[in-house]
Amino acid sequence: MKLYDFDGIFDEKLSEYIAKNASKHKESEWEDIIPKLYKRFGDTVLKSIGKTPRGFYAEMTDGELIKCLKAHLKQNVPVSEFLCDEIESRSLAGELLPLLGGNESERDYAMGLLGADDRAVDTYMDMLIAADSEDLKNRCVDYIKEKADLVAKKALKNYENGVEREYMLEIMSRTVLKNDDIFNILLKEFRTDDENIPMRASYLAAYGDERALPYLLDKIDGEGITFVDFQELKYAIEALGGVYTKEHDFSDDPYYQIIKSHGGISPDIFTDSDKTEN
User: Fold this and answer.
1) At what angle are helices 27-42 and 6-21 packed, to 10 degrees?
2) Lower CB density within 10 Å: C or N end of the chain?
3) Rounded to 5 degrees, what angle do the CA atoms 160, 163, 164 make?
4) pLDDT per residue over 120-160, tens digit each?
5) Angle at CA of residue 94, ends 103 and 89, nearest 5°
6) Are residues 110 and 96 in contact, defined by beta-carbon separation less than 8 angstroms?
7) What Å distances lie between residue 248 and 24, 227, 229, CA to CA?
8) Which candidate, 113, 176, 114, places its Cα nearest to that of 150?
9) What is the Cα–Cα distance from 83 to 73, expressed in whole angstroms?
C-alpha cells in the first residue's frame, strides 16, 4: 500500500507560502490563516497522485482505511487529519475495536477515533482494570463516564470485589439510571471517609440523588471542616437543589489564607470579616 505524508507535503507548501507572504500578515493572523490553508489543501488535486488528499482516502474501502492507518503507524509515517476524518465519517467501530488490543500507537489512535462509542465502553472497562499506566486508566475512565450506565453492573461488582475501587466510585457516580446499591455505596463512602470529603461530596453531587442532602448538610455543619471541604460541600448541596446560608470563619485556615493572599477569593463570596456569606 502506497503511503503519503500529506502533512509533510502541506508543511513544505506552507513554508513556501509564508516565505512569499510573511510581510502581509501578523503572527496572530497566521494562526487563523494556517487552518484555512490546510482545509483548502485537503481539496486540492496534487499532481504527484492525481487526487486530492481527501479524495485519496474517500476512494478506499473500510478495510483499506484501517489497513492504511495501521501501515502509517507501523512505518512511522505521520497520520494526516484527512485519514482520520474519513475514518470518523464512517461507522467503523467494528474495524477499530481490535486495534484497542494492538500496540500503544494503534490503541491510542483507536481510542481517539472511537471516543465514547457504546461498543467500546465495555472494552475500556477491561483496559482500565488491566492497565499499569495511570494516564491510560484516566483516559479510559473519561470515556466510560460518558456512558456509565452501560457498565454500571460491572462497576458495582468490581467495587464489591475491591477492584479499582476509586475509579469504580467515579464511574458509578456518573450513572443516570438510579440504583439504590450504588447510592448507598456513594453515601457510605462519604460518611466514613473524612480524609477525602471533597471527592466524596463531588460524587454525590454528580450522582444527583437529593436523598444525600441531609448528610451533606450535617457534614458541612460539623467541626473541623476546612475551607476546601466547605467549598465542595456547598457546591454539592446546591447541585442537589439545597441551600446553605450559615457563615463559617476560615481566617485561620492555611489554604484559605493562601487563596486570599493571591486574590483568588471573590468579594461576593466572603465578607470583610473573612466569613462566608453563603
Assistant:
1) 140
2) N
3) 120
4) 999 999 999 999 999 999 999 999 999 999 999 999 999 99
5) 100
6) yes
7) 58, 9, 12
8) 176
9) 12
Angle at 230 between CA 226 and CA 231, to 5 degrees: 120
Torsion of CA 268, 210, 167, 159, to 10 degrees: 150
Arithmetic mean of pLDDT, 11-20 = 93
Rg (CA), the chain: 26
User: What string of H, E and C letters represents the secondary structure of the chain?
Assistant: CCCCCHHHHHHHHHHHHHHHHHHHCCHHHHHHHHHHHHHHHHCCCECCCCECHHHHHHCCCHHHHHHHHHHHHHCCCCCCHHHHHHHHCCCCHHHHHHHHHCCHHHHHHHHHHHCCCHHHHHHHHHHHHHCCCHHHHHHHHHHHHHCHHHHHHHHHHHHHCCCCHHHHHHHHCCCCCCCHHHHHHHHHHHHHCHHHHHHHHHHHHHHCCHHHHHHHHHHHCCCCCCHHHHHHHHHHHHHCCCCCCCCCECCCCHHHHHHHHCCCCCCCCECCCCEECC
Between CA 254 and CA 259 the distance in angstroms is: 9
- The answer to whether 192 touches 185, Cβ cutoff 8 Å, is no
Cell of 91: 461507522
Q: Read off the pLDDT of residues 172-220 as tens digits, 9 standing for 90 and up.
A: 999 999 999 999 999 999 999 999 999 999 999 999 999 999 999 999 9
Name residue 249's beta-bridge partners: 275
Dist. CA 109–CA 8, nearest whole Å? 19
| Distance spanning both ends of the chain, measured CA to CA | 65
Alpha carbons 138 and 131: distance in angstroms, whole number: 10
Q: How many CA atoms lie within 13 A of 212 on its CB side?
A: 33
